[in-house]
Amino acid sequence: MASTPSPHTTHLHSLISSSTNHNKPSNLSFFHTSSNPSSFKLIHSFSTSFSSTISNVLKTADISLSRDLNGFVSTPKPTILVSEKLGEAGLDLLRSFADVDCSYDLSPQDLCAKISLCDALIVRSGTKVTREVFEAAQGRIKVVGRAGVGIDNVDLQAATEFGCLVVNAPTANTIAAAEHGIALLTSMARNVAQADASMKAGKWLRSKYVGVSLVGKTVAVMGFGKVGSEVARRAKGLGMHVIAHDPYAPADRARAIGVDLVSFEQAIGTADFISLHMPLTPATNKVFNDDTFAKMKKGVRIINVARGGVIDEDALVRALDSGIVAQAALDVFTVEPPPKDSKLVQHENVTVTPHLGASTKEAQEGVAIEIAEAVVGALNGELSATAVNAPMVPPEVLFELAPYVVLAEKLGRLAVQLVTGGSGIQSVKVVYKSARDPDRLDTRLLRAMVTKGIIEPISDTIINLVNADFSAKQKGLRISEERIIVDSSPEYPVESIQVQICNVQSKFASALLENGDISIEGKVKYGIPHLTRVGPFSVDVSLEGNLILCKQVDQPGMIGKVGNILGESNVNVSFMSVGRTVKRKHAIMAIGVEEEPDKDTKKKIGEVSAVEEFVFLKL
C-alpha cells in the first residue's frame, strides 16, 4: 500500500515543482545579490544545494509517515541542537516536535563535530555560526534560529549558499529593553549606582550625589521602532518632553503618543537626555563621535541600550572629561565584554550594566517561545516573516533578472540617502517601464530589492522576498507599483526602474519633481546598472563605487574645477556625466569616486561659485 504524503510534505513538493517550472515565477525564492557580477556564477551550485536540502526534507517526511502508517519502526525525529541557554517554555515546544540536544559552551571544533547530526541549530549571541559550521553540516542542517534580534554572529551568505534558512526572534524582548532603558535613565539622573557603591564603602556623601529632575526635561529618542516607541511612552509618563528621530517612523504614529519627529541635528542639539535605540549599520557606525558630541547641549546625558558600535567610545570619554556629556548610562559596548581597564567603564560619571536589556524572566521565556515556533515552522516547510534570508530563485529566473535586482537595490539605497528632515518615509512608488505584458513580468523580487535598499542602510532588518512586504508594513512604509508599457524589445524584462519617495524633504533639491517627490531612475546597459535620471535631469552613470551629485550653473570649465579639487585631495574619479534641462541654465554633474572625500574637500567643492548644491552618496 502506497503511503499518503503529509500536508507539509505536499506543500514542499509543490514549492519544488513551482521552482522548476520555467513558465512560472517562483513565489518562494530569493537571493542576496551583490554588485559583483562574478557572484552570479555560483547560482547554479547554490540552487542545486537548496533543492537537494529540500529533497532531504521531503524524503524524511515521506519515510517517517509511511512507517507510521504501515507499522514500521519510526525513523528518528528531527534533531535540534541548542547551543546556549533557552527558556523552558521554548524547550518544551521543541521537544514536542523533535529530539533536542542542549549542549552549551561548545568550542568551534565541538560545534562542527556535532552539526552534521542536526537538522536545526538554535543560538543566542555567543555562538559563531561560520561558513565552517555550514560546511561541516554536509547539507543536513535546514534552519538556524537566533534567539534574539541581531544576526551578526551568523554567516548569512554561507547559510544561503547551503540552502539553510535563518530566522530570529525580534519582538519578544521589546518591553524588557525599554524598561531597562528607563531604569538606566532614572538611576543615572539620581546617581543611584554611585551612591550605592559609596555607602557600601562605608561613606555617607549626600551632597556629592545631588541629581537632576526629569520633569520638564527633553529626551531625544534616537530610533523610534518597537523599543524606542515604548521608551517614549514611559518617558512621557515621567513628565518628560519627548522628541524622536527616525527616518522611517510615521509622523502620525509619533503624534498619537505625543512625540515630535525631528531631524538628527535638531534632536541632538536640543535634548537634555539622549536615548539610543538605533541599529548598528554602516550608516550608524560611530555616528556619535567628536563632531556630534560638539553639537550637543553642554551637560547632556546619554543612555544606550541598543548597540555599542553606534558610539565612538574614545570620543565619549573625551566628551565626558570636557563636560559636554555630564553622564552616560551604557548597557552595550563595541567589544563585549569590554576590557577590564576600559576608561569608559571606569569613568566616575558612567553607569554600566553587562548587556542586560533583554534579561528578564518574561523576556527570556518570550524569546524562547518565539524562536522555537519559528524553527519548528521552518522544519515543517513554512516560511516565517522573521526569516532573515530565504532560498534562491531558480537559475533561469535569476540569470534574467540579476542585473535588474542589483539596479533595484541600488536605486533604493540612493533614494533613501537623499531624504532629510524629521517627517519620516511613509510612501514609496516604484515605476517599471517594460515592453512585456504585465502577466509575463513578476516584479515581486524587484519590489523586495527596492525595499531592501531603502530599509537596510539605516535598520537592522535583513530584507528578502519573504519578509519585504511585512517589514515595510511594520515600519509604516507603503510601497506601490506602476507598470508602463513601452515600445521596446520584450527580450529584456525591464526597460527602466524609477523610484519615487513621496512627501519628504530632500538634501539635494534637484532630485525633486514638480510634485515634490524625490525621484531617481535607472536602466541596465550592457549588463551593468546605470543611473539615468535624477529628478528632471538626465544623467548616465554606472552605479559602481560612490557618487557625487552637483547642481551647477551650466557653464564651461566646471568639470575641470571640480575634478582638480578631487585630484588635489587624492580622490580617484572613475567617471563623470553632465545632464541639463535647458542649455546654459542649470546642469547636474554626476561624478563617480572610489572613496569619500574628506570635509575640507567637500567644503572646497561647495565654495565653487557655480555649484549651487551637491551631495555625496554611497553605493
From TrEMBL:
Where on the tree of life does the source sit, at the highest rank?
Eukaryota
Which cellular component appears as one GO term in the record?
chloroplast stroma
Q: Name one Pfam family in it.
A: PGDH_inter
- InterPro entries per UniProt: ACT-like_dom_sf, ACT_dom, ASB_dom_sf, D-isomer_2_OHA_DH_cat_dom, D-isomer_DH_CS, D-isomer_DH_CS1, D-isomer_DH_NAD-bd, NAD(P)-bd_dom_sf
Question: What CDD domains does UniProt report for this protein, alphabetically?
Answer: ACT_3PGDH-xct (cd04902), PGDH_4 (cd12173)
Q: Which Gene3D superfamilies does this one have? A: 3.30.70.260, D-3-phosphoglycerate dehydrogenase, domain 3, NAD(P)-binding Rossmann-like Domain
Write out the pathway annotation from the protein's UniProt entry. Amino-acid biosynthesis; L-serine biosynthesis; L-serine from 3-phospho-D-glycerate: step 1/3
UniProt keyword terms in alphabetical order: Amino-acid biosynthesis, Chloroplast, NAD, Oxidoreductase, Plastid, Serine biosynthesis, Transit peptide
Q: Is Iron one of the keywords UniProt gives this record?
A: no
Q: Which family does it belong to?
A: Belongs to the D-isomer specific 2-hydroxyacid dehydrogenase family.
- Can you name this protein? D-3-phosphoglycerate dehydrogenase
Which source organism does the UniProt entry give? Answer: Anisodus acutangulus
